[in-house]
Amino acid sequence: MLFLDRFDAGRVLASKLWSFANRDDVVVVALPRGGVPVGFEVARALNAPLDVFVVRKLGVPGYEELAMGAIAPGGIRVLNEDVVQALGIHDEVIDRVAAEEERELERREHEYRDGRPPVDVQGRTVILVDDGLATGSSMRVAILALKRKRPAKIVVAVPVAAPSTCAELESEVDQIICAVTPEAFQSVGQWYEDFAQTSDEEVRDLLRQAASLPAPSVV
């Protein structure tokens, strides 16, 4: 085990991001649900605003933990072609799963924000956070979708990642920070003592807490 829980992981990750502290052009964007506790600690340490970016993994029917792709707001879809081809997954299956996940994506967008508008990322440095990277499907779709919002810079930051996934994503963003990349990587959860599922209520509560913190001061 590397981390006690996601909050502990967020504090470790924040220690790798000090160059982004106390800057009014920086925003931390977390992938819910598991990325939000990590992002909360990062945002608090860096004195930066926190927002969420809802993406949904497209799980293989019957093996939902295995990602065949992911979707993000704006109709963006990324497929894991290796998984799709290896399992012979047909387009109609992908479309059906995507339609189901689109409904859940819209529900979460509405529920998490509590009436608050999304943070404007145009021209800003976005630190895109999750609790870890396995295949990277969710992160890839988030990167694609965020690029449409024209940020100045996208920095992917995670506490733990598969070495190959961390390396593959390097070319897709301005900077990637994977705090730990264990060679014996099998899943994100194996590196946490407590990897219990983050609830919708926890996400809402952390976002409310983050919104109530003082605005970042310019150094």
Characteristics:
219 residues, alpha/beta, Rossmann fold, 5-stranded parallel beta sheet, 3-stranded antiparallel beta sheet, 37% helix
Rg of Cα set: 17 Å
Give the SSE order as H and E letters: HEHEEEEHHEHEHEH
Q: Considering DSSP H and I runs of 4 or more, what fraction of the residues is helical?
A: 25-40%
Query: Please, what is the oligomeric state?
Result: single chain
Would you count the extended β strands for me?
A: 8
Structure classification: alpha/beta
Coarse morphology = globular
Biggest β-sheet description: 5 strands, parallel
Distance between the termini: 37 Å
pLDDT average, as an integer? 91
Low-pLDDT segments, ≥5 res: none
Determine the strand fraction and express it as a percent band.
15-25%
| Level-1 CATH class name of the domain at 6-54 and 112-212 | Alpha Beta
**Helix count from the secondary structure assignment:** 7
CATH fold assignment of the domain at 6-54 and 112-212? Rossmann fold
CATH architecture of the domain at 6-54 and 112-212: 3-Layer(aba) Sandwich
Arrangement of strands in the largest sheet: 2-1-6-7-8
